[in-house]
Specification:
Two copies of one chain form a homodimer. The first copy, chain A, is an alpha/beta fold. Chain A has two domains: 2-269, Spore Coat Polysaccharide Biosynthesis Protein SpsA, Chain A (Alpha-Beta Complex); 274-356, no CATH class. Helices cover 31% and strands 27% of the residues of chain A. Chain A starts with a strand and ends in a 6-residue tail after the last helix. Chains A and B meet through strand 12, strand 13, strand 14, strand 15 and helix 11 of A and strand 12, strand 13, strand 14, strand 15 and helix 11 of B.
Chain lengths: 357, 357
């Protein structure tokens, strides 16, 4: 088993804590370890042969620094010259694995997801590996807990009762009414972006549905007999120069046969914006979630989230606010507008305020 | 003419920028000079004989430091051992002035008021001095611009057309309906806490209506023939040990005869809380008032006030908020709850968090 962690996200929605060089997955947002470090540690008990982290050049140094302490398992950091969505990153990792281990099964995990029950998460991965060993493309479908309109859904042919079951179709983000219908059927799952499959199996499917990417990946040559990726950079640059960005969902999963879904109910959040943190962190007695704060005082306030920059935080007459205090920038945001934090980043880019990006 | 500046206020409503040792009047809230420094500079063109600043022991050092650069006029800093409201502070200053200059007229000014048109302010003071020279107690009544329920009012016998006119009565903070009636008559003014009177005249009235304070003040003795206040501290401590706190309004003004009011319309704010700052500072094009900030980004937001601690401030989906970022404490407050900031200070006192006070 090989773990492939997709870690190149820009995480603009966690600005100002997240910046281009330290996006969400590299942030220590819960205090302590970063989400990337947690993602790596979470899979170590599975004893994978290698952990491969695909990221971009800007984040590579910090990524290497953060995983340097891992010595149970070899960890590779693969640099993409430019982000091209998930299909090229997965294809690249699959090509490398397949070169050295034609029977290798790869587990694809985003670096920036929160998982509550890690034991159950690993059990689900093991089940996925079993199905992948028989040639299936397995996707982890999160059992929905609310009619969320912000995620894509996967419809299963039947309720698998925890076992892998055939996928009927992938569905784009639905309007609320449809999301409620989905929830009622018991056969719809959130598309988590976590996958398990054979390296050769996914390369076959890329060959079938993404011939351009497949041809570019086929040019990769490996001179050494040993697993050593540092010399691959010029070749990767060449591969990426000729391909366009595409997600593995759109490029392969929505078209492929033999796709299965395993219902996953280990407590999951993609922590897509500041407003998602209260889902995965305990609120204090006043109903506020505080990170990196020296306590709080709350007068007629509740439901706020503060990243306090080590300060005492006082709330007076406010509800459902997000406040993030960093050394050079201060964000004040209504929880319902948390998705718009990325607009701040866009505006700063437009103004050329690169120091804040 | 002597200027007496009352500067001992605690200013808890400007927490966390204001602290016990640097209350509102000593803060550089508008950038640049403090409100105390502005208050002193504002009167210098009047060429007063002396400026006397009454403050407390905790703030005396910073007060002296802030006025050290004034060399046009002698400036005295008088330390009260403990705050006892305005009557004792005024009585103390009047006793000192009367000792050296029996005909001295004193202008009493709070240290923490904002005044827009300084030329017109000085014209009003000069008119007040003329009335005071004939023995009147003159109070500056601010021509109201809205039916404010947070101030006390002064009812004049008639519209003085800018000249001093007899006061009919002082009125406590009214409910909205009454405040609207007051506004309609054209004879009601906001009680600003600014007064002009002869030092002996106010001491006479204190003698008539506040015999206890009068008796305590009578014990003050002045050994030197020169104006030198540094040796007065033990005597002041003795005076203050035996008196109770009282405002000059309640203690004298509401009872005295020969009280006059001058309509003042020079643009005034007592800047009583963070929410008053937008009245006296320009908002930017997004409708936010920014102090000590490196610019802002506003997404779907308006009407906020931020003291930015030198940072970039981003507003997303928020309205009418006050955000104050200091090195050790961060305040987030709805404008409508700005009066409750003092409750934060009370709570911090209750918890013994003296570092934040």
């Amino acid at each position: 088993m090989y773990i492939v962690i997709l870690a190149g996200g820009s995480g603009t929605r966690f600005w100002p804590l997240s910046r281009k060089s330290t996006p969400k997955q590299l942030m220590s947002v819960f205090g302590g370890k970063s989400m990337l470090q947690r993602t790596v540690e979470r899979v170590l008990p599975l004893q994978p042969k290698r952990v491969m982290i695909v990221t971009n050049a800007l984040q590579a140094a910090e990524t290497r620094r953060q995983v340097a302490y891992i010595d149970d398992v070899p960890v590779d950091v693969i640099e993409e010259p430019v982000g091209r969505n998930t299909a090229p990153a997965i294809g690249l990792a699959a090509s490398i694995i397949a070169r050295f281990d034609a029977d290798g099964v790869m587990v694809v995990l985003p670096a920036d997801h929160y998982i509550l029950d890690e034991e159950r998460f690993r059990d689900t991965i093991v089940k996925g590996c079993e199905a992948a060993a028989s040639g299936k493309l397995v996707t982890l479908g999160i059992t929905p807990t609310r009619p969320e309109t912000g995620y894509g859904y996967i419809e299963a042919e039947a309720d698998g009762n925890g076992a892998p079951v055939a996928v009927r179709r992938f569905v784009e983000k639905p309007p609320l009414e449809r999301a409620m219908e989905f929830l009622a059927t018991g056969r719809f799952y959130w598309n988590s972006g976590m996958f398990v499959w054979g390296a050769c199996a996914i390369l076959d499917q890329i060959g079938a549905f993404m011939p351009e990417l497949s041809a570019a990946l086929a040019k990769l040559t490996f001179e050494q007999e040993v697993w050593e990726l540092s010399d691959l950079r010029p070749q990767i640059a060449e591969v990426y120069a000729g391909i366009k960005g595409e997600s593995i969902d759109f490029g392969v999963m929505e078209k492929a046969q033999d796709v299965q879904v395993i219902a996953a109910s280990f407590g999951w959040s993609d922590v897509g914006s500041w407003s998602a943190l209260p889902e995965v962190m305990m609120a204090d007695e006043d109903g506020h979630v505080l990170i990196d704060a020296k306590g709080s005082v709350s007068i007629g306030s509740d439901g706020c989230l503060a990243y306090g920059g080590g300060k005492l935080v006082a709330f007076v007459g406010v509800k459902d606010l997000i406040v993030v205090d960093t050394p050079d920038a201060l964000l004040v945001c209504d929880k319902s507008a948390a998705q718009d934090v990325k607009k701040v980043v866009e505006e700063l880019e437009r103004r050329g305020k690169f120091d804040y990006l």
